[in-house]
Structure prediction request, 532 residues.
Amino acid sequence: WDRSDFPWSKELEDKMKSVFKIQTLRPMQLQTMNVTLSNKDCMLIMPTGGGKSLCFHLPALLSKGVTLVVSPLVALMEDQIMALLKFNVAAEMLNASTNKDTIKRVQEEMVSHNAPLKLLYVTPEKLAKSKRFMAKLEKMYQLGRFSRLVIDEVHCCSQWGHDFRPDYKFLGIMKRQFPQVPILCLTATATSKVLEDVKKILNIPNCYVFKASFNRPNLYYEVREKSGVQTEAMDEIYKLIQNQFPNQSGIVYCFSKKEADDVTTELTRRGIKVGCYHADLMAVERSRVHQAWLADKIHVVVATVAFGMGIDKPDVRFVIHNSLSKSMENLYQESGRAGRDDKKSHCILFYRLQDVFKQSSMVFTEQTGLENLYGIVAYCIDANRCRRSVIASHFGEVWDKAHCNGMCDHCDPAKQKSTQNKDVTKYCQDVLTVLDHAKRLDQRLTAIKVLESWMQKGPVNMRVKGVEAPSSNILTLERILAYMLIQGYIKEDFHFTPYSTISYLVPGPKAKLLSMGLENVTMDFFSCSNQT
Ligand code: ADP
Ligand code: ZN
Prediction:
């Protein structure tokens, strides 16, 4: 599909240069445009900033009639329409707040042969809820003016994605209603489960799928241990920002609205210019923070994941995660807001075992919630693999660590520590012994209690003779416990109280094998003195 001898190839190249002022195409752009111009269904998976929009803007100019673009956010549509009008491309949008006159004018243009309209942006709600609009589309289709359906952020169809929008499900009828109209799906989400789900929902099982690489060579990925004491953790983030990124733009992602409020207070008290952004703040306040940040009046936005889609500042030098994200996918997307200008930028995640349980008690009701969470835990506790290779394998890419160029904490020659593989079978068996002991006493143990008993601390009746922790370093014990969790030697058992959900640890599906001595557990450890 990367040929340039299609009937439209010459015009494509001309318009690319004359209208959009683009000289050469990026990987996957030509393939995608050729497929969609051949009236075939296509899905393009490309990281944010990769250049997905051109793949339908340009074909829209080469096709007669109108390209319908479904997009989840009015702010995204506004940006795109502004950009298109600058290039003198006729584009319009319809959403919940469009006035009657505009609706009438646009709907007339949809069905009149000599109207200039090329691209029409709508929210999924518009399609799902307006019968009159659907009737107009039907008419446009009959007239042969419905040239293409573009679905932006198409992962919103799937409940397994990180951004499910119920109205996107409705798009499933489009293929049946308009069988001749090629569908072009765009997303930066590459989880194969989500993509398979999307194909099914949209009724395009045989669509062409193109995927650009997800590697972001200018992003430095790093995981740091988070202090268990909140003021110390805040001091560390403060120093990090102050020393490494003074007066530079960044984002600090938090796990909850409450955490975002707290971190805002703490960083403000220490003298950093921050703004807070989460769903409980009024829209005007959110917009004020966003604008002030864009204008460099504040340097850091402390936010929940509500600060996400449509955030497009080129010079974000750092993205810090104050707590664990809920999946690798989320981590990649959130971190990916750094370094859009291709300059070196840092993505630093502060990890601590306790954060796993904060997240797990939130996500365990989602279909693959725990699986996704344990995926990112594996990333955090890994002692030697290139961070990029973990990310790449998550996106189904093969990765050669040599290509990291020292741009992660495990490849960086300045940080590199040697690791040693050690047998921890006996220690893991001890953890199971502690759990069995508690069960006999009809007691439930949270992770903290397990660690206590393991170290022969805490209530005397919870301690077991012969059980011995491998180290006095709590971080080492936490790592082993996390590893047992993601490997299924132990599992979480959730209990509801009126105020919260508590995660207790119990033997997991692979516990038997371990207790019976049929399985050996080995882990990599840093070979420095303070860690076993
Ligand atoms: P995405 O939708 O994938 O996040 P955009 O479509 O917004 O990304 O494109 C990001 C930027 O890259 C835009 O400024 C766009 O003009 C630019 N761009 C896209 N394709 C090319 C190209 N082939 N050459 C140069 N710049 C491009
Ligand atoms: Zn690396």
